[in-house]
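Order emerges. One example.
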Amino acid sequence: MYPQGYMHMHKKRILGAVSVYLALFMLLVLLSFIGDNDKESVDNALKYFSESDIKTGKLFFLHGLIPSAINKIVSLLILLFIIFKKSHERVAEFLSKKIRNEFLICFFSFFILFLILAAVKIPLNIYSGFYRDRLFSLSEINFTTWLQRYTGFMILGVMVMTITVGVIILLIRNTRRYMIYIPAAFLLLSMAGAVLYPRLITPLFYKTTPVSDGHLRGKIVELAGKEGVMINDIMIINQSAYRMTANAYLAGVGGERKIFLYDTLLKKFSSDEILSIVGHEMAHYVEEHVLIGIILGTLSMFIVIPLFRILSIFLFGKNEKEMTGARNHPAVLLTLLLITFISTPVENSISRYMESRADNYSIAITENPEVFIKMEKGLAQANRSHILIHPVYSWFYGSHPSILNRIKAAEKFVR
């Protein structure tokens, strides 16, 4: 149970913290509406893109941002309602009567909460996912297929979050040295995810086949050989069956690393442009960006755990041990939500640094910055990217450098 006088002592603190979070979030949303109106940025954009490209990218972005913003606010309000009305106490009581195993109680408690928060997002996600893609000519799949895939991704996401948070909370609850065990568990879970993603997750949602274009494969193997890179597999994903967006990514660690190319790349981009994309992914491979990301995430636990303790005491008057009971799980999620918001610009700054290095690596090994620029332009058009995104919003939420910054960096190689 919450300590006596809890509502009076801490309600204002909770509402104050949430108000600051919402104020900062809404400021970022407002800036995204404004966009980057700097004359130099606009002139640079018009060098490579038409006014129609710029307008379409912004509209596509906003058609996704507005539902996403509403979903964030609704989810936050639901958490506050559950916390203040102590609704989850009845769930915790029910679980403790039906289940004797502490581990299962913890996992079912978080699963129910994550499922509720995921379910309330479905209506607006139908708009931002299914309808928006059709509106901007990015997809022609029927609603039943879309809903089946969306449900699969949603359940997978709920399961991953339930297991991750559940393990952390159980380690805090049942061990003394959780400051050591939690980073170790995070490392193991992350490594498992990196290994399983290309082997199980990608094939579960997409049909994948090896690159069949002999000319393209030969050029990729030649480029990799020149750099002394051993690529085990270059796989093609049947993305066009679901969406017309174009992309590529590296997944896995060690011997399980694979480069995945969307089949839309083969349909819309030249072999030299695809080679530029592969060069970018090779950089992630060569510089071990996936492994570095996992290590940095593991080290961040030594900051997240004390921060969780500080916020738990400040907002709820409870230390981390006291927060681990199933009755307090909604409070745990609210605390983690605030920590995630605080850490977002830090994580994305690191990600952008890695992506910039990958861009530079690609240009250096292909020795063709003009093709790289053409490729970036093609990706922006294919994906309906927001070209004049506000720099503050991009700094906070952008995992990659903005389109214009990537082109600007490539232009230095042309000179």
About this structure: The longest strand covers residues 258-262. DSSP finds 16 helices and four strands in the chain. The mean pLDDT is 91.
